[in-house]
Amino acid sequence: MSTDILTLKGIRKSFFGTEVLHGIDISIRKGSVHGLVGENGAGKSTLMNVIGGVFHADEGEMMVDGKPYLPQSPKDAQKAHIAFVHQELNLFSNLTVAENLFIEDLPLGAFKQVKYKQMEKETIKYLKDFQVNVNPKTKVENLSMGVRQSIEIAKALIINADVVIFDEPTTSLTKVEKDQLFRIIADLKARNVTIIYISHILEDVFELCDDISVLRDGSLVATMPAEETSRDDLISLMVGRKLENVYPTVEKTIGEEVLRCEHIASGPLVKDASLSLHRGEILGVFGLMGSGRTELMRALFGLDKLSGGEITYKGKPFTHHTPKQAIEAGIAFVTEDRRDEGLLMPKPVEENLLLVHLPALAGKLGVVDRKKGEDLADQSIEALHTKVQNKKTQMACNLSGGNQQKVVLGKWIMHEPEVLILDEPTRGVDVGAKYEIYTIIQERAKEQSCVLVVSSEMEELMGICDRIVVMSAGRMAGEIERSEFEQNSIMEMALAGGEKA
Amino acid sequence: MMKSKAKKQDQKFQTFLQDNIMLFVFLVFLICGVLFVDKFASAYNIKNYLKNCAPLLVVSTGLTYVVLNGGIDFSTTSIISLGSVLGAHLLVDSPLAGTPLAIPLTIIIVVGIGLIFGVVNGLAVSRLKMPSFVATLSTQLIGAGLAVWFGSVLFEGAVSLGGLPEAFRAIGGKGIFWLPIVIAAVIFLIFNWLIRRTVFGKQIYAIGVNPRTAEVSGVPVKKNIFLLFVISGGLAGVASIIYTAKNGAGVPTMGDAMFIDIVGSVVIGGTDPAGGFGGVKNTLYGVMFLTLVSNILNLMGIEWFYVDLIKGVLVIAAAVLNLIFKNLGVRGRGRA
Amino acid sequence: MKKWRKIVALLLASAMALSVAACGSKKEETGGEAAPAPAETEAPEAEAPAESTGDGETYTIGVAVDTLDTQFWMANYQAIKDRAAELGNITLVEAIASADANVQNQQIQDFIAQGVDAVICMANDGAAIAAAVDECNEAGIPIIMNNRPVVEGTADPDAQVLSDNKQMAYEEMKWFIEKSKEENKSYKCLMLIGDLGDGNAVERRDGYQAAVDEFGEGVVDIVLSVPTEWDHEVALAGLQSGLASNPDINMMILPSDFLWEPVQTALTEVDKWAPIGDDKHVACISFDGDETGKQMLADGYCWADAAQSAALQGETCVDTALSLIKGESLPNRDIKDSGLLVTCDNFEEVKDSF
User: What's the angle, vertex CA C6, arms to CA B336 and CA C11, rounded to 5?
Assistant: First the structure.
């Protein structure tokens, strides 16, 4: 106990009535490297944010070095000598290295002017520790990810951190940079700095960590020394839930191939992806953060450019198209982020519902048939059981998450697409609405549309899909038919190939 | 049942009030003007008032489209100036002068110039991703320079050019006072209809609120934004014709001082400068209100330095009014 | 909560309107009624206003001003006000257009709507003002152009009180040339030109040029003309580049005393600002005859200044307006003020008379 630097007892946290952390108990040994693993949505980020003072826990207590720890803000975490190296680095790309390092606490002279020379000297000193040779006057935007990360770590050292938390640190690093990072971590350990290491790359976790904790669905299911466990054990712990949820079923037939993409490459994340989608089929796409699933969908829809590969749609080549062309061809895309890309938040529900279908409602000269639009909107609201009082005055921002999602779905379905691409369709949606959305998806499939569902919830995919393909690091890692759905093997596939080449 | 019907009607009235607040303010001022200001209600004054509203309504309608997208178009004033000078010269001392086709061709050319500015602005903003502030400020400066150069360097001697043919001046209301009013009314009706009833119009509102959502939903964002500037430029060209005819001369600095009135009418009318809310109907209210204020103040014989002061105060008051109604929740931005 | 805001907003709107109205009615009490206006408020038709004869009546004159940024105009405007006060039966209504031709036309229309008896107009733009002149003609309201004429042939104002710019400039240049011949001097000259939209500026230039063409051979050579748009900054820029490219300039023509400031600045920069008699002196002749001009003559920087009688012109406008209102006819539409040629020779004698 006395050797624990950080202790959490009974930490609970809820958002909008939904509890996401169910009483977390965890103790981190001083000077150790403590790994934290779990699926997407297991609660790792939330837990770290509670420790970091970004969120306040609803219940429970924390102690740092034996003393009670109740951060009101990130600054309090800093004062407690807890440092974060976030997945998306918190650096200002248009400022220099030195400025970034000292941004929290710039050395000021008598007239409150910044003492640049002093800053730069100290910067060189700190960076030397990491064998990073960078001119402190360089703007961060001109540096590689590896160097940026070193700077972020240096920031941690400046506040004399006793605990450094790394959140998925290797996703943007090259192999060389990763080795560099591991050396730095070893170095920190030698200085008696405690490390919390969050990652889904299990090999790395085993290489670095002394202890490992597993988080699953908001609960801490196990903590043990690394040498007492194995990869398979970890996987089982990560996914070993009882599949309790009920999913709707529907009678349907699966027909011919409608959409095929081969060796798609797009942007930095999609390297070589191929899949095939059949009429009436619900195809799930599973993968961990950074695997490129969303990016693949965006490339298929035409939002992102393809740098390689071919798409065949209904037998004909269909590459390099715009979203508008995709829509005209019968493809729909419900994006991940309904707030920024799916809805017009300050506009009424009706306007949102009609947005995609507008051109079809137009008569001569482009005049919109108002009555027809109204009828279609009413139909959509009824069919999807969307709870809205007045579709003309109630704005999208005033609906619950579930209803918002139904509006987005309704908008796309109104246009009667043949291919429906869904990215995280039930994120931020309550249980009741989730079931309704699954029903809607099944109905579409029954009507002989094809559905592509991207989701981080394995259970959900297993519940409604006919087939699941798994992506990892931008490539296809495997495929499973419904009859062979099994959590461990799916996760195994998702974790494979986690190392960047 | 009775209660909810009454409530619904009350709600409907509330919504109507909120959407058309500036109309009510305008009517209040109008009534005050009729009752308290001498000579306001004379036929002569009313005709002038309407004639003054006409060209302002035309150019402000065009600008409304750009503002609905959160943008701005500074070049409208230069289009008015350049169009004025070019138009006058075409009618008076070009090979066209005196021919039966002179007037229609002049109109086509001047509107064409406005369209060219619009195309340049539109391409700069939609393709080159220039902020509209920068792009239209540049074209405004170029246009203003061209207008003066055209007037004074190319044609030596006088800078402004009068002596325009009577038939042309009719467009400004000479002899046929209702001609500019009818032109403005037709343009208003067309462009109000365009923004409210067509696919294009509804898409403009969507882009103004959230271009990303619009793009994902299949709206041709780039093309539409391009068209906004073309509309703004073209209508500025039409306004240039009316102003020139009205003043009976091509003046190279015709439009220079007009920007406040143009933007003022759009904003006072209730169109949100951030985009996505408002419309051409709102601009009509703004134009009528602003022109009314000028008219009343002139008729009251108020010392000139008070006029600008009062105008400014009223602009602020109108803006505050719009803000109050916006925050009542019906037109909020909704960061729920 | 919502309802309260709505009420407050409507109250705000009404308050705005009522304050404007209150302002208006107060104005009417103090400002005096417009001239006996016809009972019905129809558009004044082609006939002149019904009652316009007999003293003891009061008349309203609309004074349309462009800008008041030069001494000449301030003196002119003051003279109008003084004359109206002196006569006692005239109320003035004023409007300032601030260099916007479009606004000026609207202001004159509003004068007509108010039912003024006459309009005195300092036109911003000689071509665009034609529209306002036409309106006045149609309404039967006399309009008098104050110092700035309409572009010839485009409109028919009832009267124009003008400086005989061309003649004055011509005479001035002629005197200067003869003087130079006496002193056996010759000059390379830079001529500044006012705003080319201002008929006066054009006439002055034409006058100077005519004299030079006729008499100036071998004595005065105008090597450069610099347009100024009646703007100090523009003038200064033109002067600087002119002096740079023609360093042997030793004479300047100022179409208005308004331009002494940039001239002084530019000449000082090249160390040529010196009075008559000094080697570095650059000969200057000017126009207007305002306080600055007087000073320059007194200090010896200026050879000659064609003085416009600002006050006389203002007064004449008012008197002419009154005559026209009463229905009298004028011998000439254009009333030309031939001004006073003040030179370094006669300055002492006449310096108090302008």
Answer: 145
pLDDT at C261: 92
This complex has an ipTM of 0.85
Is a pLDDT exceeding 90 seen at residue C293?
no
What pLDDT digit, counting tens, does each position of C161-199 carry? Answer: 988 888 999 999 999 999 899 888 889 999 999 877 677
Measured CA to CA, the distance from residue C307 to residue C290 in angstroms comes to 7
- What's the whole-number mean pLDDT along residues B79-94? 91
Strand order in the sheet with A67-68: A18-29, A4-15, A59-64, A67-68
CB of B135 within 8 Å of any CB in chain A? no
Provide the shortest C-alpha distance from residue B229 to chain A (in Å). Answer: 20
Assigned domain for B76 exists = yes
- Distance between CA C300 and CA C343 in Å, rounded? 10
Of A336, A344, A408, which to mutate for an interface test with B (greatest number of B Cβ within 10 Å)?
A: A344
How much is the pLDDT for C22? Answer: 58
Quick one: pLDDT band at residue B155, thresholds 50, 70, 90?
low
Out of A347, A355, A367, closest to residue B217 by CB: A355
Residue B20 within any structural domain of the chain: no
In a domain, B305, yes or no: no
Which structural domain range is residue B213 located in? 45-255
Nearest to C131 by CA among B74, A437, A222, B88: B88
pLDDT computed for residue B128 by the predictor: 95
* Disruptive mutation site among B7, B42, B240 for chain C (greatest number of C CBs within 10 Å): B42
Residues 6+ apart with CB under 8 A from A159: A78, A81, A83, A104
Give the integer Cα–Cα distance in Å for B306 and B79: 30
**C10 has pLDDT over 70:** no
* Residue of chain A whose alpha carbon sits nearest to that of B199: A366
Contact call for B336 and A365, based on CB within 8 A = no
pTM value?
0.79
Inter-chain contact B298–C95, Cβ cutoff 8 Å?
yes
* Torsion angle, alpha carbons of B221, B223, B227, B230, to 10: 130
Question: Which residue of B lies nearest to C199 if distances are taken between CA atoms?
Answer: B158
| Interface contact flag, C23 B243, Cβ < 8 Å | no
Query: What is the dotted CATH code of the domain comprising A257-330+417-495?
Result: 3.40.50.300
Q: Which two tokens mark A479?
A: 């495929």
In CATH terms, is domain A4-239 a member of 1.10.287.3510?
Answer: no
* Residue B331 sits at the chain A interface (C-beta within 8 Å): yes
Q: What number of other Cβ atoms are within 10 A of residue C7's Cβ? A: 10
Tell me the C-alpha distance between A294 and A427, whole Å.
14
Decide: C and A in contact? Rule: 3+ Cβ pairs under 8 Å: no
Q: Number of folded domains in chain B?
A: 1
Measured between CB atoms, which of C16, C113, C131 is closest to B247? C131
Residue in C110, C127, C139 closest to B298 by CB: C110
Would the CB atoms of B38 and C128 count as touching at under 8 Å?
no
Contacts of B158 in chain C (CB under 8 A): 126-127, 151, 196-197, 202
Name residue A448's amino acid. Answer: Q
Taking phi first (over 0 means left), then psi (-120 to 50 degrees means alpha), and beta for anything else, what does residue A31 get? Answer: left
**B199 interface with A at CB cutoff 8 Å:** yes
Residue B325 lies in a domain: no
| Rounded Cα distance, A410 and C145, in Å | 70
Please list the ranges in chain A whose pLDDT falls under 70.
1-2, 16-17, 88, 130, 241-245, 497-501
Which residues of chain A form CATH 3.40.50.300? 4-239, 257-330+417-495
φ and ψ of A142, to 5 deg:
-95, 10
Is beta strand C118-121 parallel, antiparallel or unpaired with respect to C59-65?
parallel
Percent of chain C with pLDDT over 90: 40
Q: Which residues share a beta bridge with A469?
A: A285, A479
